[in-house]
Amino acid sequence: MAATQTVRCKRGGQLLIALIIAVAAPAVAQVQHDGFSQLLADHVQPSVGGHSSRVNYRALKEDSARLDRYLTVLSAVSPAQYAAFDRREKMAFLINAYNAFTLRLVLDHYPGITSIKDIGGWFSSPWKLRFIPLLGDKLSLDDIEHQRLREPGVFDDPRIHFAVNCASVGCPSLREEAYTAEALDRQLDDQAQRFMSDRSRNRYNPQRQRLEVSKIFDWYEDDFTRGYRGHHSLKGFLAGFSQQLADEPSARNAIREKQLSVSFTDYDWRLNDSQ
Predict the structure, then answer these.
(1) CB-side exposure of 76: number of CA atoms within 13 Å?
(2) pLDDT higher than 80, residue 6
(3) Average pLDDT of the chain, as a whole number
(4) For the DUF547 domain, which residue ranges apply (predicted)?
(5) How many structural domains compose the chain?
(6) What is the residue-wise DSSP string for 89-107?
(7) CA 58/CA 43 separation, integer angstroms
(8) Does 208 reside within a domain?
(9) Is residue 269 situated within a structural domain?
(10) CB 139: neighbour CB atoms within 10 A?
(11) Which of 14, 175, 213 is nearest to 92 (CA)?
């Protein structure tokens, strides 16, 4: 699309009008995640209340051509195109890539596994396998999560830990829709609410009078205490979820006042299979 700009200047007492025709660079098209959304809607089964979800891997494997078409779309994005995305587009792209390629990795070994940790060998975890053609390189799941989504100074948003899904029961739920730039903040906040409302993983223990929360908060504590929304301590971050963590008003108040000790629950690495 051409843009016309009028420039007025004086030369020798005469007013000259110069017309400059500037050709604007074409806008970078957003990645279309609709196909992935429909695939997730068809094969992800949320629990009652939406606190967690399971995947029908058997049906998804039979439907894997749709997943592969979406992976091809992701892999076609060049580094230059990605660089032109805005912050929310980049986050949605990377989160969807992590989740979609995790599904592909599981399907490549299904039904012969009971955990994603069964994939790989003694010297290669599933998260370090470089099988992902993305952004002009061959990446691993760890590369996407730790080198891009968690890179300090880039996004600095701990809510990614409620969005990326490692195909395990202990993970925050795989969302039944793709992430999009337009809805990203709402989706991430909703994921946080869902996960923190899951009393099997995050709860107040009245007998021991302490908080028992997911091991995620132990592994990635720095991400939750780096100043996101003013939080500089794990207790400060958890204080915002007092209603999800406890029923009793006194316990909720103690959580908000950061008075309770925090311990971490065991992580369940079983495959999040609905079968």
Answers:
(1) 10
(2) no
(3) 90
(4) 85-195
(5) 1
(6) HHHHHHHHHHHHHHHHHHH
(7) 9
(8) no
(9) no
(10) 20
(11) 175
